[in-house]
Write a structure and sequence with these properties.
The protein is of the alpha/beta class. It contains 11 helices and 7 strands. The protein has 2 domains: 5-16 and 85-194, HAD superfamily/HAD-like (Rossmann fold); 19-83. It has helices at residues 19-24, 30-40, 44-49, 54-62, 70-79, 88-99, 112-118, 133-136, 143-152, 167-175, 187-194, and strands spanning 5-8, 15-16, 85-86, 104-108, 129-132, 160-164, 179-182. The strands form 2 sheets. It has a 5-stranded parallel beta sheet with strand order 5-4-1-6-7, sandwiched between helices. A two-stranded antiparallel ribbon has the order 2-3. It is elongated, with a radius of gyration of 18 Å. The chain starts with a strand and ends with a helix.
């Protein structure tokens, strides 16, 4: 292993976040889904950053849809975290790292509602530390949230390796001295970069 600590993103690294698929599970028809997609996800980055409250966002979204779809929207906002399905290869990697006594950390952009939901997530019980964006009112790729991770858990950036599905987030980590990889689903590529192969 080249690194002392491994930092994971959540969405599309630990769990599959497919916005359309999740919304479809609450819609009666593809047409309803087409109508709701741009409204439901319009200001999601603000939810991730915590600059708008979760309930406020729900009410704002409900007010922007036809009355017949109001309950669909409310159901979606209550139930979507249950549809973030675990990515087995990543779960296996986390298990392997923990087996080697390599500390794993989480650095994820997510709304407060998801952060609360994830606190009961069994896999995150293996993590030495977790950082979710919305409760801190800052989000990747803002350097502040990376510094918060390093300072809170006394980590040296150069001893950490970051796995995220977005290039700009990995780039922001690199700018602060933390190496990383853009995760495209190839766990062998990740293991090679970590020096595990």
């Amino acid at each position: 292993m080249k690194y002392k600590n491994v930092v994971f993103d959540f969405g599309n690294v630990i769990g599959r976040f497919d916005g359309r698929y999740m919304l479809e599970q609450f819609c009666q028809s593809p047409k309803d889904c087409d109508l709701l997609m741009p409204v439901v996800y319009a200001r999601w980055p603000e939810l991730d950053k915590g600059t708008i409250g979760y309930e406020e966002y729900v009410e704002h979204t409900v007010s922007a849809v036809p009355a017949r779809l109001e309950e669909t929207v409310r159901s979606f906002f209550r139930g979507w975290p249950d549809l973030v399905s675990p990515i087995p290869d990543t779960a296996e990697l986390i298990g392997e790292l923990c087996g080697r006594n390599v500390p794993v950390y989480l650095l994820s952009n997510a709304p407060t509602y998801f952060a609360d939901w994830a606190s009961g997530c069994e896999m995150l019980g293996k993590f030495s530390g977790t950082v979710f964006s919305a409760p801190l009112k800052m989000a990747k790729p803002d350097p502040q949230i990376y510094r918060y991770l390093f300072e809170t858990f006394s980590l040296k950036p150069e001893e950490c390796f970051f796995i995220d599905d977005l290039e700009e987030n990995v780039r922001a980590g690199r700018a602060l001295g933390m190496d990383g990889i853009v995760f495209k689903g190839n766990i062998r590529e990740v293991k090679t970069a970590l020096g595990m192969m």
